[in-house]
C-alpha cells in the first residue's frame, strides 16, 4: 500500500515537472517565430526602405537568437534530463532561470531594436551572461554528471566550459572600448564570444543530447572517449579561424588547419560509429548530421589561404556558415529532441517543408558566390533570398499554433535522458 502511494506521488510529481517543461517549450517555439520574423525583416530592409535601423535590428536578432531560442532550449533539455530527481528547490530555481531568460531576451530585443548598443542593452546583455552562470551552476550543483554517465556527457561538459569561457568576450570588449582600442581588436573579442557560443556551447550541447537520445547501448571505451575529448579540445584553437580576416599569417592558417582537421576527424569517427550502432535517426536528425559534416568541411577549406581570403571577403558566405550551423543543425536537433521528449509535437510534412526551405535558403547564400567566381550571376538574388526567408516565420508560426494546446500526459518519454 505504502509503495503504491509513493509510486503515485512520484508519477504526479513527474507529470508536474513535465508540464513545466512543456510550458517553456511553447515559449521557445514562440521565440523561434519572433526570431524568424526578425530575420525576414532584415532581408526586407536590404531591398526596401523602412524607418528602421538595420544594424540595431541585426544586433536584436542575434542576441535574441542566442538567448531566447538556443540557450533556452538547451537549458530545457538539461531540465528534462534532471526532472525525475529534481528537488523542490532546484525546480523553483530552474523555473526562475527560464522566466528570467525570457524576460531578458525580450528586453534585449526591444532595447537593441530601438537604441542599439546603449546603456540598457549593455545592462541586459550583462544580465544574460549572469543567467548563463546561473544555469551552469544549477546543472553542476544538481549532480547531473554524477547521476548520468553516458559517454556523450564529455560533450556536455565541454559545452558548459565553452559557455563560461565565451563570457570573457564581452568583458574584454568592454575593456577594449574603455581603453579606445582599435576596431579590429574589438571585433576579435566579439568573434571570441560568437565562436565559443556557437561552435562551442551550442554545437557541443546539441550533439551531446543527440547522442544521448539515439545512442542507447554505446560502450564507454577509452578509444571513443579520446575522440569525444578531441572534438571538445579542438574547438579551442579553432577560434583562430575567426582571426584570419585580421591576422592572415602563415602560422594562423596552420593553426586553423590543424584544429579544423582534428575537429573533422573526431566528428567523422563519432559519426560513423554512431551510424553503425545507434537507433535509426529521424529525418530531422539525418539532415542535421549532414549539415554538421558540411560545416566542419567548410572550416577545413577556410584554412587554405586563397579560399580563406575569398570566404571572408563574401558576406553571404559568412552568413551562410552561421546559418548552416543555426538553421541546418541546431534547429532541427532542437525540434527533434523536444518532440522525442514529448515537449512539443511535430509533423513529417512540416519538418520536411522546414528543411526544404533551409536548404533553398543556404543554397541561395552559397551557390551564387561560387558561380560569381566564374562570371555567372543570378538576377534578383536579394528578392529570392527575401522570398525564401519569408517562408521561415510562416513555418515557425505553424509549429507554434499546433503546440499551443498540446498536452502529453500519458507515457511521458524520459528515454531521451536515461543511460
From TrEMBL:
Keyword tRNA processing included in the entry's annotation? no
Q: State the organism named in the record.
A: Pelobium manganitolerans
Query: Which keywords accompany this UniProt record?
Result: Membrane, Transmembrane, Transmembrane helix
- Source species, domain of life: Bacteria
Does the UniProt entry include the keyword Transmembrane helix?
Answer: yes
Q: Where are the transmembrane segments?
A: 21-44, 64-82, 94-114, 120-140, 152-178, 190-214, 226-245, 251-272, 284-312, 318-337, 349-377, 383-401
Q: What is this protein called?
A: Cytochrome oxidase subunit I profile domain-containing protein
